[in-house]
């Protein structure tokens, strides 16, 4: 029944959702907010994630919790500085262009001064203009040198940023893997309670549970209901129409008795 009811797809979706969240800072625990996972049914989560969330509500933690927090802190400590190489390149291009323009102007003015001297004409005004253009050229050359130095520094920062991003991605991959390990550990720890809870869920054969979470071959909704049943949630569980229909069509037990806790129906009115 795994393929038919989507249990396998949901397990793969759990892994995919983590691998595509590379830019988010992962929390330390294997499941940071259990209610966000099992506070409603259908949960849209895999069985191990559901069971790990239930385990967290019971005060359980994995043996690698400290390692998760350490990795989380290492990820958060890596800051990647944004570097605008395009702006630095434009500054060099602009400064170089201005320098070349002024070089041509200085050369032209120098030629004009020489020509006036050859005909023994007045050169004071032409020399003043040449001196002014030469000062502008000197400033433009200084700006070009500064722009080139800034570009070199920006390239160094960009290389450092690439290295930092690679380190952060590597740590995030390790963190996701360790969180997956922690969920598996927590899921195994509460699996006997989950098997017992399945007996209270209509429409499921307890034998479908197998010996561990990876062996479960029963209906997805039934597994979600059993996972919620063993959890110690503070508030009521929101049951969607699909979950309510599942219970009603398979014996008509009250949802509250199936979950052993308060329920909120789609209309939003709890019935305790």
Automatic annotation (TrEMBL):
Record-linked InterPro entries: DUF7856 (IPR057178)
Coiled coil (UniProt feature): 85-185
Low complexity bias (residue ranges): 18-34
Highest taxon above the source species: Archaea
Positions with biased composition (Basic and acidic residues): 1-15
Key words of the record: Coiled coil
Chain positions covered by the region annotation Disordered: 1-34
One Pfam family matching this protein: DUF7856
Protein name as catalogued: Uncharacterized protein
